[in-house]
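Weekly structure sync, notes
Attendees: PL (lead), two postdocs, one rotation student
Agenda item 3: pending single-chain targets
PL asked that the sequence for the first pending target be pasted directly into the notes so everyone works from the same version. It is reproduced below exactly as submitted, 116 residues in total.
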Amino acid sequence: MANTFKVKTFDGSSTAANVPMNVYTADATQTEGTLTSTVVIGLTIANTSSSQILVDIKLAAGATVFLAKDIPIPSSSSFEYMAGNKIIMEDGHSLSVISDTANSADTTLSIMEITA
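Predicted structure, written out during the meeting:
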């Protein structure tokens, strides 16, 4: 089994308000080897706007659930969601961020993909 650390980013500078930004989808066909799982080890959302925004973080893994809802992020600030926690994702699972304000949220996701 191979472990590969990666960073995934989503530039939210041209995204409408309340539209999901798909930051990452675990996809076995897009990896070297056979993807068995992905460990999310970091998630940072930066507010690039001049006013406070509210963001949601959603995980689609069979059912779609909120990991966090209505997180206030002040202007020109960032929010670190993980704080030492881990999220395990399998093939087909996806993680998205939604901002209530257009063109306002950049997202950085640190992951470890585990392949066979």
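Discussion points:
- The domain at 2-115 is CATH 2.60.120 (Jelly Rolls).
- The mean pLDDT is 93.
Action: rotation student to compare against the earlier draft before next sync.
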